[in-house]
Amino acid sequence: MEIEDLKVEAKDHVELQRHQLIQLSLNIHDNPELGFEEEKASAWLTGYLEDSGFNVEQGIASLATAFRATYGQGSPRIALLAEYDALPKIGHGCGHNIIAASAVGAAVASKSVIDQLGGSVVVLGTPGEEVFGGKIDIMKSGAFKEIDVAMMVHPNILNMVTVQTLACSSLDVEFFGRAAHAAAQPYEGINALDAMILAFTSINSLRQHIKTEARIHGTITDGGEAPNVVPAHSAAVFLIRALDDDYLTELKDKVINCFTGASVASGARLEYRWRDRDYAPMKNNATLAGLFKQNLESLGRHVEDFDSRFGFGSTDMGNVSQVTPSIHPTIAVAPPGLFIHTQEFASAVVSEAGHEGLMDAAKAMSMTVVDILQPEMLDRIKQEFQSG
Ligand SMILES: [Zn+2]
Ligand SMILES: [Zn+2]
User: Fold this and answer.
1) How many angstroms separate the CA atoms of 354 and 349, rounded?
2) Which ligand is nearest to the CA of 87?
3) Predicted structure pTM score
4) Residue 268 Cα, ligand 2 centroid: separation in angstroms?
């Protein structure tokens, strides 16, 4: 079959699943589960893939809600990544229900292409994207060593085939002071909350002098128990982000200096720990992005270039993109002015536009699978990856 006929067939096979894919998306959306607790979502997704003839392994990389579902054999091995975790209180304000449903839809639609051209399509269920970096665990388990290409589509307000994301480190910090009666013997106390507030103030001062795209933000998770007791303990979680790893390292030292200074000033002892799940910046594979762009445009969508005014986030897909040729395109499901991680966006991802975004994302991915399986295409993708 000619390439264009194969693409028409792949698109048709996505369309045939319309009802089931929208139902999967709605089920995940209506039952939001936090990172690493996505039991229902992973059961629904693996059930659908198993019924569609995929070989499913549940609980890979020692993560109960991670999975691998494979169809076909041998190389090229094309991974479609599904995320399905939600946000506290906002539910699916990041629209991961669309990421999950479009990945499985594209994979199932790719079956007949795989039957005709060989290779395999692998759905990797990657839990806990929002905070835990589940893909980092899956990488450490070696699951990406056998993958040739990886892609996923994230809902947003514009259609874009390449995105810039920030390197990101998470910091747990605590101050240990001494409790005392806050009115009777305050001079006996060492105020751990004051230490934390001092650190926040220092970081606010630092913020004027950091590079434009860098970000430092945190929340206090323990600020004491009672107003009449000098807080003996305080705790916070911070995220530090930068465009590249070098500046991130520089910034991390400066942030620790703020906490150290607050410790000296207050007398409270500082303890901190960097979590070992740093998010890497996204390395976009332009060859792969170009293929995806043509396919998305053929569906009647206008594709925009990435614009820094659009804002930067971080994703553990960045880590994947450092070891495997990858793309992380976005699909428009809501009008400009609406932003992800909001209640409004959580509604948009199950609107008519949300469903169309899911269908087009699945179609464009399945058509891109056809492209990747053409002679020498994988070599071109890999050559670009190795040279950059
Ligand atoms: Zn998010
Ligand atoms: Zn997201």
Assistant:
1) 4
2) 1
3) 0.91
4) 37
